Each structure stands twice: as structure tokens, then as C-alpha cells.
Amino acid sequence: MIHFVLLIVCAVAIYLSCEWFVNAVEWLGERLNVGKMAVGTILAAFGTALPESVVTLVAVTTGGTEEAKNIGVGAAMGGPLALATVAYGVTGAALLVKRRRDRASALAAGVTVPPASQALGTEKDMRRLAKDQKWFLPIFFVKVSLGLVAFAFKPALGVLFFAAYAVYFWREIRASRADEAADGDDGDEEELEALKIQPKKDSPDTWAVVVQTLATLVVIFIAAHYFVAQLDVIGPMLGLSATVTALLLSPIATELPEIMNAIIWVRQGKVRLALANISGAMMIQATVPSGIGLLFTKWHFDGPLLWSGLVTMAAIVYLLLTMRAHRLTPARLTVAAGFYAVFAIGLIPMLT
């Protein structure tokens, strides 16, 4: 029972920490003048994806056996899978619930509002979101392909993944600033809420912004670590093998901060930031952990790892097509979670 209690405590700690984190990171983006979209794709994504990258780094550099190092490879593949399916699906469900509640409130007040099935954002918003998917897909395809071949200089290619993220980082910062200069205040991101640790100041001190950002990241990292540890214990208690726990439950747990961030931003009506946080985290997961894995492991995929890669790419193709057609609705975004169910079903014969 203590493990279930700790699991709930960790989940609550992650959610509350994310509340403070998104509050601080928006102020940090304002101080760094990175543009509002880059707050989600770069700052928030980097902060919440850092724990997963550390897990991969520790596993591949300190693992005493090849099997231990492969835990890092599994983390590098499980993260993008959970983000492309569960994270987007949960965000879609949160959007669906919020739209229906807003519509019910508006109708009760006699106000006409758009239907809950209306597409997310403008065509320009969809092009912005699709851009991240178009960056992610070819990089991830190369990442999976390298897991199927072996050659002498493969480890050296890890550096190219770091370079790919550096290019993405630079282009995203420039594009976000340019978009903000062109659009001005588009009404999606309202005036920033007061910083949690300085609630009476309209413009908080920079040191307070930095302290709140770093402190919440530390709490998120510790809480996520213990959340995964409780799952590792609870999984076998429920009759799940260690392999199933590692492939199905742990990736969701490690991506919980991104999911929480998205839910919080959806609740605040900042849809673009919610979706940008997930797509930005996916870009980090496709590059940084992969580069680390290539440098320190054989980067060889077995059936489950290859299956996870194929399902991830299928989910991204689905999202990309709906975004480009400007037909991405909350309901269609929720469908992305179904790809994780497909992964779980396909995994059964591989583990029996």
C-alpha cells in the first residue's frame, strides 16, 4: 500500500511543481526575449526533457553490462513514443473537456460560441505545429534506421544528432521572435500571471524567476524519479513483467511533466504553448538521448524497440497529415493515444 500512496504523492508533487514551473518559465521567456512559442518548444521542453536525457546518459555510461546500457536505449525510444501518442492524446482530451465546458457555460449565458469540433488554431498555427513534426520525422527515421545496421563509424554519427538539435534550437528561436514581431499580441497568451514567489509584484525580480524555475525543475526531477521507482515495484505486484513495465509504464511516467505542463496550459487557454511544449520535447528526445546512445552503445534494436519506432512514426504521420490539412480538432488529437494501445497490443506476442 505504501507504494501506491507514494505513487499518488509523486504525481501530485509533479503536477504542483509543473504549475509553478510553467508560471516561472513564461516569465523566463519574457526576460530572455525568446518569443512566446519558443517558451514551449525550447525552454519548457528542455527543462522537462532534461530528466529523461540524464536517465539515458547515466544508463549508457555507468551500465556494467550491455543489458544495463540497453535501458538507456529503451528510454531514448520510449520517450518519443509516449509523447507522440499519450501526451498528445491526453492534451486532446483536456481540450475536448474544456471546449465542452466553455460551450455549456456560454450557452447558459445566451452567448453563441464555436462548436467543440472546430479545428485547433488558424492555418498559420497549424503550419507552425506541422513544422516541428516535419523536423522530427526524418530525424527519427534515421534514428530507427541506424538501429538496424552495424558499421565501424556508427558511434561517431551521434554528434550529428546534437548538431541537428542545435540547428533546430537556433531556427526555432529566430522563427518565434519573427512570428511574435509579425503577429503582435494574438490574444492566445494573455498577460502573464504574477510570479508565484513574488505574487505582489507586477514585474518580478530576475533572480526570483531563475530561482523558481530551477527549484521546480529539481522537484520535478526528484518526483519523476520516485514515480518511476514506484512503478517498477507496483508492476510486478500487478503481475506485469519487468519488460512490460519498462516498455509500457515507465515511458509514460518519465513524460509525465510534459503531460502535466500541457494540461495546465490548456486549462489556462494557452493551447499553442501546450502543443509546442510536446513537440519541442519530442525534438529533444529524438536528438539528445539518441546522440548519447549512439556514442556509448551498439545502438542495436530488437523487435520491441523497432515496433516502438514504427508506431511512433505512424502517429506522427497521422498528426502531420491532419495538421497540414487544417483538420486537427481536439477529438482527432485524442485519437493519437490509440496508437499507444496499438503498440501495447503488438507488443504482446513479442513478449510471450
Structure explained in plain terms:
- The protein has helices at 2-32, 36-62, 66-108, 123-146, 158-183, 206-237, 242-254, 256-267, 271-296, 303-324, 330-334, 337-351.
- The chain has 352 residues and is mostly helical.
- Helix 1 (2-32) crosses helix 8 and helix 4 runs antiparallel to helix 10 (303-324).
- The chain is globular and about 60 Å long.
- Mean pLDDT is 82; it is low at 185-189.
Features:
352 residues, mainly alpha
Distance between the termini: 29 Å
Uncertain parts? 185-189
**How many helices?**
12
Radius of gyration using CA atoms only: 20 Å
Shape: globular
Helical fraction equals over 70%
Query: Which percent band covers the strand fraction?
Result: under 5%
How does the helix and strand content classify structurally? mainly alpha
The overall average pLDDT, rounded, is 82
Order of helices and strands: HHHHHHHHHHHH
According to DSSP, the number of beta strands is 0
Q: How does the major sheet shape up?
A: none
Layout of helices and strands, plus pairs?
Layout: H1 2-32, H2 36-62, H3 66-108, H4 123-146, H5 158-183, H6 206-237, H7 242-254, H8 256-267, H9 271-296, H10 303-324, H11 330-334, H12 337-351
Helix pairs in contact: 1-2, 1-6, 1-8, 2-3, 2-5, 2-6, 2-9, 3-7, 3-8, 3-9, 3-10, 3-12, 4-9, 4-10, 5-9, 6-7, 8-9, 10-12
